[in-house]
């Protein structure tokens, strides 16, 4: 079971005079909140990565300085990304946001280490206490943090930031962290990265992944295609990969320290990049049943596919979702055959086809054209246990087949 979510950037605006229906009046802009809520994230990792440690330890994020009346918070200089933050979006607000989204909070806490320096071991107890106060952990003096947290809070699960996907870890943990930023072709080819990962021991939390630099531009279709292939691989390995989230989540167009991010905004507008819209294809994977799927094709390795059974939380109806990613420049004819349904039949009334593509792989969305590269849905007229379909070049396509009866393998 693969759980999807988001890692936050450090630019999520907190506007104290905004009254939001969806976010329970907690001051988040409705348009930005809805962009996250529409993805149905199961968890939220915050407040970021380098932001937590700081380049210098004196500029590290300290959670106790981010709570209390907003106007009384001291704020701090985020020297990792070179801007001042008033910490109006603090520890408590992130917890509220997680609660409003119905997402599990995953809080990244400082452990006495910055990007360039380390706190002396004699003072590490201060950070251990802060970790206990916040129910958190980090990597420096890892066992002290792990043992203390498990002693006082045995129900809390701990995530190590050491990669255990290739070699087994030499320390106890419940999950381990995995990051991957690369070009589109390389990320697409990482579909098999976890195929041979040990199935015993801690699970995987892919807490940061994205296509970036030249392939990504400001948020391209090409980036989304590379990411789609990688996510297909995570879905296939959901017995060991428990959680995954794209990073970063937000970027303000007036301060692009990193590009791309999933959601772009200014003082009054917002739009999602193709990478954001790709999340919609995997939103139903949380809690779904991975089905046995075999892809028989002679069209090289540019085609990837997966199949799940998922249940609509609103009406309880069951769907088979077949996702196909075509990373290549040539359209492909495919035959999709579904076996093992018994007397269960496919209902044509709500079977749909959804496709994410564009005329050029480097096409991007913008404030002028926010819907240039977004998923397009249409009725699946030839829905059935055997279908012949044409998969467009440079595309992600989802075939959702509604079943008349129960979901296979789901309770």
TrEMBL record:
Superkingdom field: Eukaryota
Protein's name in the database: Uncharacterized protein
């Amino acid at each position: 079971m693969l759980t999807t979510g988001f890692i936050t950037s450090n630019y999520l605006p907190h506007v104290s005079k905004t009254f939001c229906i969806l976010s329970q009046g907690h001051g988040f802009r409705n348009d930005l909140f809805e962009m996250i809520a529409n993805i149905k994230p199961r968890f939220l990792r915050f407040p970021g990565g380098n932001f937590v440690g700081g380049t210098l330890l004196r500029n590290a994020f300290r959670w106790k300085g981010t709570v209390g009346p907003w106007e009384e918070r001291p704020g701090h200089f985020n020297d990792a990304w070179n801007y001042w933050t008033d910490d109006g979006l603090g520890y408590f607000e992130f917890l509220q946001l997680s609660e409003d989204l119905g997402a599990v909070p995953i809080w990244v806490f400082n452990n006495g280490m910055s990007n360039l320096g380390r706190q002396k071991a004699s003072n590490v107890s201060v950070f251990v206490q802060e970790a206990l106060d916040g129910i958190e952990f980090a990597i420096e003096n890892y066992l002290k943090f792990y043992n203390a947290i498990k002693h006082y809070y045995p129900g809390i699960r701990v995530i190590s930031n050491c990669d255990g996907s290739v070699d087994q870890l030499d320390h106890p943990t419940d999950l381990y962290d995995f990051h991957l930023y690369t070009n589109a072709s390389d990320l697409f080819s990482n579909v098999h990265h976890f195929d041979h990962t040990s199935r015993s021991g801690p699970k995987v939390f892919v807490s940061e992944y994205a296509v970036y630099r030249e392939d990504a531009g400001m948020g391209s279709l090409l980036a989304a295609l590379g990411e789609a292939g990688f996510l297909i691989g995570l879905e296939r390995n959901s017995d060991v990969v428990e959680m995954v989230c794209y990073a970063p989540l937000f970027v303000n167009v007036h301060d692009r320290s990193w590009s791309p991010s999933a959601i772009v905004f200014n003082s009054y507008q917002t739009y999602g990049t193709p990478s954001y819209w790709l999340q919609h294809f995997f939103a139903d994977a949380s809690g779904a049943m991975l089905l046995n799927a075999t892809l028989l094709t002679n069209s090289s390795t540019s085609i990837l596919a997966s199949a799940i059974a998922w249940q609509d939380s609103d009406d309880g109806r069951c769907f088979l979702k077949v996702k196909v990613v075509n990373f290549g420049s040539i359209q492909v004819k495919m035959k999709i055959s579904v076996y093992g349904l018994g007397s269960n039949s496919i209902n044509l009334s709500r079977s749909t086809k959804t496709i994410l593509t564009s005329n050029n792989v480097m096409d991007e969305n913008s404030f002028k054209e926010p819907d240039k590269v977004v998923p397009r849905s249409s009725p699946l007229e030839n829905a059935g246990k055997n279908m012949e379909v044409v998969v467009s070049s440079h595309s992600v396509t989802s075939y959702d087949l509604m079943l008349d009866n129960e979901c296979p393998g789901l309770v």
